[in-house]
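As described in the Methods, two query proteins were run sequentially through the folding procedure within a single session, without resetting any intermediate state between them. The first query and its resulting structure tokens are shown here.
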Amino acid sequence: MNQTMEVCAANRTVKFYYEHSGKNISDHWRKRDYVVVTLGLTVCIIVILSNLLVMGAIFKNRRFHFPIYYLLANLALADFFSGISYLHLMFHTGPWTIKLSVQQWFVRQGLIDTSLTASVLNLLAVAVERHQTIFKMQLHSEMSTRRIFVIIVFIWLVAIILGLIPSMGWHCLCDLEQCSTMAPMYSRRYLVFWAILNLLTFTIMVVVYIRIFLYVRHKSKQMSQHTREVRHKETVVSLMKTVSMILGFFVICWTPGLVVLLLDGLDCEKCNVLRYEKYCLVLAECNSFVNAIIYSFRDKDMRKTFKEILCCMSNRSGNQGGTSEVYFNNTEHEKSKLHIARRRQQLNGTPLLHDTKESISACEGS
């Protein structure tokens, strides 16, 4: 936090900024608050577990060790981080909000901003990768793993920087007239900048995918009916449809929230942005587990790997009960062998027929 923020917010609390912007917070828990937090926590757990499953599947199956899937794994990581961010939000919302310090409030908002930016940049990287690959009628990009790693690191650096911008100075703590309604300590100018930047990125991605689809449609008519070419085309188109569905759901889930933020940034008093805030937030949160559902329905290999991981986990938990039985049988077997060895030692090492039979029966019994 910079010194300007500390000076401006020295004698002001989070409650002060909320009341000034007209966003009142209840100081006691209502039924509505309990419902929101309960549903929010449920969705957060689903988001975290589903994206862990996606990352595990891509790591486990070597068929997914290609640039496009590395980027999709990073998208799952961004969604996983989004689940963590919303989980943090659920424990710092409602009546808990007024107990936050100004610094804690900026951390709460910064986590959400960072996760969204990481998701947007990932989808943009996927769009560029698909454009580069499809126009060569290839299934996978020729980019090296090192380049993909550099792109992923760059994505997270930019996301973190954009998430920190408000706390580094682009806020309204020293200019109360510029405070927004939905985010009472964010400057309206920042909301306009952030919303337009993301909506512009959405537009670019949609245009890129439309161009790719038109190209694939044109190229498909020129391809021969050779079996290998037809199968290759079907695989390319199938992966393209999966990625497009991911982008489509992302745009559908996030566009309403960004439009409401833009209206708030433009100081639209008649728009009543607070009325739609919660719905937009829930819709955006749900997007973080949609991708796992898309993979399950669209990608057979991904669906198969999901089942393998889940079956492996269930088998491990089931085998824990049978371990003691195996250990017990092995212990009894060792005791039987020790007993026979002692008997033989007592008889000066001369095995009798009785001992031989005893040995055989003991081994069979074990």
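Immediately afterward, the second query was submitted; its sequence and tokens are:
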Amino acid sequence: MYSTERAGIAAKTKRGKKQQQPLAWREQLEAGQIKHWKKVREIGDEIRFHLSDRTTYIHDDAVHFLAELPPNSIHAIVTDPPYGLIEYEEKHLQKRKAGSGGVWRVPPSFDGSTRAPLPRFTVLSGDEINQLHTFFSAVAYGALRALVPGGHVFIASNPLLSSMCFHAFQEAGFEKRGEIIRQVQTLRGGYKPKGAEAEFPDVSVMPRSCWEPWGMFRKPLIGTVSENLKTWGTGGLRRATPDEPLRDLIPCYPTRGTERKIAPHPSLKPQRFMRQIVRAALPLGVGIVYDPFAGSGSTLAAAAAVGYHAIGTDRSLEYVEMARHAFAPLSALKV
């Protein structure tokens, strides 16, 4: 009788432990995040702004900051980097502000609306493309070191340069997990021959772009997805609902005028799109999202809107200041 009762009690205890295990590992993840966040947001000596208890923006170069981060210290990267390097050189930024073009194409007005300048990626030389590959390789190797196992990278590109950019991440050791296609029609592409538009009215030099590719990469797991999730909180993607996974085609209108007034950045992405990507990046909703090229702070605002911790860097003090003012209204937008 005693042995039977003892066996029954032992079985109940064992079942109880099994039922408590999910709470134990999740509590450990959440406690570790709070402790870790306090350290990560204070790394380095650069100027920084704590935009909220969960958000910090640092005036720093992406490659430099990635080198300062301890290994396995961030859980996801969501970023829209400069698609080229030369368009953000001072001489080209001045041409953009003056409306004189240069590497920036100034689109014509349409339906009474003045369009924002767009960079001409077709003007990049072979040397500039090689320079760009070297740049993305440095970012990719730094990201591989800083991310925890199973951490994802979502990186925006464009149809002209995506293969080069994405290959750099695969060379660094990331697993490519697919692409998120932002379906959006812009004024990019469809141009007539420059200086001969009237002479060749039926000719376009390239198609009108109606999509934007976001490369999706994952740092290799340690063990199974389940084991990685319990240890690091990463390895998968957060579903929109239990019955609805993240889809790789997301229809999305161009950024609204309301958002552009808040943050007049030339490459501002809409919160409606960014919040879907950022939310998916942390499968359990636990961890730190990092944007190496934070610009006007749209990734940071999206993270705040979904309740995540996030850190951003940018080497442009102008954009850091823009983000300081744009963060609160962007994160509060209804989408």
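The first strand starts at residue 48 and ends at 52. We note this only descriptively and draw no conclusion about the first query from it.
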